[in-house]
Every structure is written in C-alpha cells, then in structure tokens.
Write a structure and sequence with these properties.
alpha/beta, Rossmann fold, 4 domains, seven-stranded mixed β-sheet, 14 helices, 19% strand
Length: 414
Amino acid sequence: MTFGCEFHKYIYNELSDIDWIYEDCKNRCDVIFFSGELGYHYIHNHIPNIAIPCAFTAYGTKDILGILLNFCIEHPEIPLNRVFVDFLTPLNHFMDVQRYIDPKNMPYFYEDKIYDYKRITARTQELWDAGKIDLVISRSINNLKALDELKIPYLAVFPSAIMIQESIEAAVKELRLSQAEEMDHLVVILRLPMERSCNGEEREYREATLHKLLVDFRRDNNMDFLITAGFGRFELQTQAPIQTISVERIQRLVRYLQEHLNFPFRIGAGLNPSGDRSHYYAEVALLEALKYGGNDGFLVSGDNAEMTGPLSATHAVTYSYENQNAVSFAKTCGINQTNLLKLVGLFQLNESAHLTAASVGKLLNVTSRSANRILQQLLEAQLIHEISVSGPNRKGRPTRTYGFSAESFRKRLL
C-alpha cells in the first residue's frame, strides 16, 4: 500500500545512526516513521526542537496479550513469570497489561525510563545472572546479536502486516490533521432590489452588470472567491486560514460597488469556521442591510453573531442584538433598537466621538430630523451631553454637537 505517500527507506545499526538519517531526510520528508519505540525515543531525546512529526509501529494492548497468550500455548514448559518482555516500559505504561494478568504470573518488564540498547542489555543480563528469567521476548531486533553473545534464550517478535498498516495510517492521519489549518468561511450575499417599474430587460442588464463587476473586482484585487448567480441575487464564497479575512476586505467590495453601480444593491456577509453558520450569518446581515435601506452592507461574525456595519463607513461599528440592556432601554424610550445598538457600537469604538444630527443621520441612514429626535431622547436620559455649538449649518442654524456621558452610557446600556 502507498497510503498516498512516497516512502524513503533508512536502516540503522546503531541508534547514533539516526543523527545522520535525520539530517538527510529533514528537508524532504513530512514525517519520520520508526519500526519501533527505541528509535522514536532516541530522536526525541537527542535532537532538540525536532521539526518533523515522528511515529512508530505501535503495539496495542490486544497485540501484547495475544503475543503472551501464544507464548503460553507454544511454551507451556516456561512459566510467564520467568520471562522478560523488554519492550514493555514506563514510556508505554507497560501497555496496561497489569489489568489483565494475575500478579503472580506477571512477566518482568523494563522499568527504567531511559530506553536504549545498552540499558536493555544490562537489565537482561542482570535478570539472567540472578536466575530470575529463562527467556526474553524482544522486539529490539538490532539487539539480538548481544543476546546471542550472552547466550540468553530469546523469542523475537515482529509486528504483523496489519499492525504496520494501522500504525502508518494513524501516523498519516495525525500528520494531515496537524497540517490542516482551521479555516474561516466567508459568504457574501448581494441582493438587487427591483422596482415595480423594472422590466425584464432592465433586470437582465443589472444582473449582467453586477456579475461583470464582481469578476473584475476579483481579478483586480487578486482575490479567490466563487461567484454563484441567482434571480436578482449573487453569492460569493471563499475560505482562508482563520482570522485572516478582515472587515476591510469586504468594505473594499462595498465601496467598489457604490462607485460603479447606478442602481440599488444590498450586501450581507457572514464569517465563521462553519460553512452553514456563515451562510446563516450572511442572511441575517442581508436583512440588516435591507432594513438600513441604503446601498451598503453588513457583516455578522463571531460566536456571538456580532453585527458590523454599515460597511461603507470609514470606521464601521460593531454591535450585538444580544445586548439586553440596550434592547430593553430602546423599548422604554421609543428609540428603534437597531439604531440604539449602532450608537452603542459607536460608543465602544470611540467613547470620545462627537455626535451631530448629520453624523448620526449618516450612521443610521435616517433624516436629520429623526437624528435630532434620537439625540434629544439620549440627552434627556443623560446618556449624552452637549459639548459645543458649532458654526451655522447650510440652513444658517448653529450645529449642536454632543458627546457620550461615558459612565452613565456604560452603566445603562452595556
């Protein structure tokens, strides 16, 4: 099996050979896969800050129990408690076999936390010389020559083909997961409100014009997004590593369309790691754009579905309908809750902001008269205060300027 990978084979006789193997393959391999635990632990102990993920052919508890059961069946003359299993160590928690074997029948384990050929051989000889073991079960193939020289009987065990396959598959999956970046999904819905007088030919013209502008915008800004056309509606979709899609990127699209389109449009954008939630957020943002009533857009993002907009503003405000203090106050004072939430967002963006009927009207897309009424209601509630009277406006009247009463505003509305 290829596992969708290209393999480079290395053989080492001494653990120190791993040093040159690492140097040779570190720039052309994505993972180093060892036949056993010795090499795996050696590389982690001797090469600091290793940059390549490592794995090894791992025995599971069921594999170990199967090996021990077969040994008992094939060698009934040797009690299990007179066997040394040199690859059950503290590093692998002795594969949890203590849960399944009676203590009086338990084989000997390698109990040193430093795991290398020299110490394995020394422990084996210690047990043999003390007359405690009759045989060694070993998977340290490179160490069998030492056991031959000591004339210590052993049974060499090898991983099965299934074990090797499962271990490699697990290593490859883990590598792919570690390399997979968490992605944000961006969905942008563009709606073309059509007047009753808009005939089929005009509708077709508007849709074709918008489609061309979107393609031009994508090309000119070197962006990569999918464009799906519908009936008076377009959807844009793209993905990018999390937290790399900025509000400014969507604002650029809004301003581009404001500059190039001579007919109405509305934009709703949704941003979230979940594609389904991003689409839902975009629909919610589109409803906000429709309520706003101007050629503009809104963005919903984050776990708390925070709204940002209108996006054409130099400093777009962010607000949330989860703000129960502001929603409750809006109901009691008679201010539209969306308008009040936008002012809360402006406060959070800049507590020192100056408020005039013109600036509030632009933010909320309401008339100066409506903006003045909102400012008067906030003034009566002592949430803002008058800070100056500017020069005359275009009608010759002085422009009243207000500032947030920060402590009161924060206490009542946040």
